[in-house]
Specification:
This protein is α+β, with helices and mostly antiparallel strands. The protein is 42% helix and 12% strand.
């Protein structure tokens, strides 16, 4: 009998772990307004019980019972209780012992398979991009490998894969030990489903309560907090409770003293997600910065699109630079900025053949642009991303006293002007011969169709994507009025894509022009109402690991970071009457930032005046320091 119960506990825990990790890993990818997933501070099993079990009421694994075993009891959230059908379970265990002949090697294999299953399931999901076949993004293959944009197959590995890298026999045992330690630490003996549910509920409530809102409709509150939930799904914690994690692009198991994150969809998230983390969850953003620094130390490059310790090279650009610069410029400076600068300088100046981030850097550095190599390459998109990164790097270089570097990178960031075509009034690809590509249609590439020179979009989606030099683009277009009219036409003629990143900040550009701010306020309200709802399709396309949701959160609060790497925001009309952001005292002097809106009538839309810290603000842009130190941002809305 004692042997039976020993096997009960062992087999039950292993089987539970296998299914829980598989389901929890699947749960990390949230649907439009689903309730699956785990916050960054809750690992797999806790996220499963708290979110799936409680919020959806689906059949859940039941943890508990007198022997601390895990039983597939098919208990929904409202069933509760700790009862175990001991007779049925005992008979199942006896049958298992008889069938397997107490083969301990089988039990050991289950643990390793559970980790492999979790990794494989995660690889098979399309959290990192839009629908497969529409976007040109990398999508994991059925064989478990990643295929990059240039056709190179890369293996995406978890900790259990260490045996494939020269340490035969150690990988599976180490993985199983790590998983068992995770289970024992996070679900110690006697843990019940109800206890886990309560802990998960408290954790979620604490995280979501970093921002409290008053006013607005129940629908708007649902959209807002669902968006906040989405931003806490990815990036997610990679290390075991022991601190062990897989080396970046290596075969070693390393240990960390802080949270090591994974799933860095940086082409998406550098635009607004990390700015939100810096403001609301600075401790997590700081751990993400530490992770990026660790990746650079282990791999020699900052991440572009990291996935479980592997670089997928998905999309283009040098997106770590704006993230690092933006965080440092806003006061998150608990990392070696000189070492970080070396890494950023490396990717900005290394020749293309040796440059993982900028494979076409030779032409970019010598000509100031990237010429077309083939009809449907992404040359213009590549260069535009480099311009944004180089401008951010120039601001950091200037702050660090590196004046010559600052001049170099700022000059490079102006290279977008090479692409401007007066004939079309848009950016246009340039051939290897130095001529504009033809025949050219600025609309070609809409709805993720192939596009000459542009990635996941067309000329209209990219032309205004020079947030660091809007004044320069205005001059190219012939002045303020022509710029505003052309930008407005993007929305009027259906050329704005709310479901992707290149034009995500377009609505906020109107506020750069005196007297045109109302366009931003009107458009943002309309876009929020149309594309962000609590219905199953209540988000525009894929959330891109929190990027679309971050856009909604900022927009509903009344300010938006429209230039990555620049510590400034553009203001718009808040959705709520009152927003209270709890600030982390480690990083901010003030305890909170309060945003209040006074409306002359219920349907008032346009901003009449703004005050920060009791003083009138005579512009529609505000710096990060002004915002967080002002204490109170007041809108009068007419």
């Amino acid at each position: 009998m004692e042997e039976v119960w020993r096997r009960l506990a062992q087999i039950g825990q292993d089987a539970c772990r296998e299914d829980d990790f598989r389901q929890a890993e699947q749960g990390q990818v949230a649907d439009h307004h689903g309730r699956k997933g785990n916050p960054q501070g809750i690992r797999a099993v806790q996220g499963l019980t708290g979110s799936i079990g409680e919020q959806q009421g689906l059949d859940a694994k039941f943890h508990g019972g007198t022997e601390g075993s895990c039983v597939d009891a098919n208990i929904s959230a409202d069933a509760g209780g700790d009862r175990i059908r001991r007779d049925d379970l005992l008979q199942a265990v006896i049958d298992e012992i008889s069938r397997k002949g107490q083969d301990e090697s089988h039990v050991e294999a289950v643990g390793a398979e559970s980790q492999d299953a979790a990794v494989t399931e995660e690889q098979g999901l399309d959290e990192q991009g839009h629908a497969d076949g529409q976007t040109g993004r990398v999508r994991p293959e059925e064989d478990g490998n990643e295929r990059t944009a240039d056709g190179v197959s890369r293996r995406t590995a978890g900790q259990g894969d260490i045996e494939h890298h020269g340490q035969e026999g150690k990988g599976r045992s180490n993985a199983e030990e790590g998983q068992r330690l995770n289970l024992e630490k996070e679900q110690p003996f006697g843990t019940t489903f109800d206890k886990l549910r309560a802990e998960a509920r408290k954790k979620w409530n604490d995280d979501l309560s970093r921002i409290k809102v008053e006013g607005g409709t129940e629908e708007q509150k649902g959209v807002f907090y669902t968006a906040m939930y989405h931003t806490m799904v990815h990036p997610n914690i990679l290390q075991d409770v022991s601190g062990q994690y897989p080396q970046m692009e290596g075969d070693k198991i390393l240990t960390t003293n802080h949270n090591r994150y994974t799933v860095f969809s940086l082409w998406d998230t550098y635009r607004n997600y990390h700015q939100l983390m810096t403001l609301v969850y600075p401790e997590r953003q700081m751990d993400m910065i530490h992770t990026m620094m660790g990746i650079y130390k282990e791999h020699g490059w900052f991440p572009k699109w990291e996935l479980y310790g592997r670089e997928t090279l998905t999309m283009e650009g040098d997106p770590s630079i704006p993230v690092l610069v933006d965080s440092w410029m806003k006061g998150l400076q608990d990392f070696d900025i000189d070492e970080a600068y070396k890494g950023m300088y490396k990717s900005a100046t290394t020749p293309g053949k040796d440059n993982l981030m900028r494979p076409d850097n030779d032409d970019y550095m010598s000509k100031g642009y990237v010429p077309m190599e083939s009809q449907y390459d992404n040359s213009v998109s590549h260069a535009l991303e480099y311009y944004v990164a180089d401008y951010a790097l120039s601001t950091l270089a200037e702050a660090l006293g590196k004046k010559e570097d600052a001049k170099l990178f700022r000059k490079r960031s102006m290279g977008y002007k090479n692409y401007y075509s007066k004939d079309f009034g848009t950016l246009r690809p340039i051939t290897k011969e130095g001529k504009f590509y033809e025949p050219f249609d600025p609309k070609e590439g809409a709805n993720f169709a192939p596009s000459p020179g542009f990635h996941e979009g067309n000329a209209w989606n990219y032309t205004f994507f020079v947030p660091h030099d809007i004044n320069g683009l205005v001059k190219l277009m012939g002045g303020d009025k022509k710029f505003v009219d052309k930008l407005q036409s993007v929305f009027d003629e259906g050329n704005y894509d709310p479901a992707n990143e290149p034009d995500i900040a377009y609505p906020y550009l109107f506020s750069r022009f005196k007297g045109e701010e109302w366009r931003t306020q009107k458009l943002v309200k309309e876009l929020l109402a149309k594309y962000f709802t609590t219905k199953p399709d209540g988000i525009p396309g894929n959330d891109d690991t929190g990027t679309m949701s971050a856009w909604a959160i900022f927009s509903m609060m009344g300010f938006y970071p429209d230039c990555p790497g620049l510590p400034e925001y553009t203001l718009t009309t808040p959705v709520f009457d009152k927003v209270i952001i709890r600030l982390d005292p480690k990083w901010y002097k003030e305890k909170e930032l309060v945003i209040e809106s006074t409306r002359q009538k219920p349907d008032a839309l346009y901003i009449d005046n703004v005050k920060i810290g009791g003083k009138k603000l005579n512009r529609f842009r505000i710096t990060h320091d002004e915002l967080v130190h002002g204490g109170r941002l007041e809108f009068s809305i007419r």
